[in-house]
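Give me structure tokens for this 147-residue protein.
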Amino acid sequence: MADEKDGPSGFKVVDRRAFTVEGSPRAENPPEVKKPETPHPPDQAAWQDMASPLEGRSSDEPSGFETLVSYLSTTTMFQLGLIPGPGGERIPPDMVNAQRTIDLLEVLQEKTKGNLTAGESRLLDEVLYELRMTFVELQKRQTRKGQ
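Here you go.
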């Protein structure tokens, strides 16, 4: 045969069919195949021993919420063309996606109402106000240019 190799191929083919080619049951039992052991998740005690990512963090560091608001506001400023691209080039405004990101911040504000600290709520209010005002101003400029 053209596909044959000189040495062993490193794997073994075992016929595990229950019946022979003629259709009669096989007399020999196929060898047992050892299934790989599945890893078990750590027990509850192990989870409790793991340190919380918030433990040991100073109060000066921004919370996950503040980081999220910062990320979304920076993304919006980039989409509005207020932040240069990675190479320092000017990025043209993408008003549609900027509006979508502002809308995401509004959804975040609505869904977290009553669950934020006073500082987090103030941060979100201020960021949304600034982004909305900037968006409206840029829309006005684009409208004036188009006339």
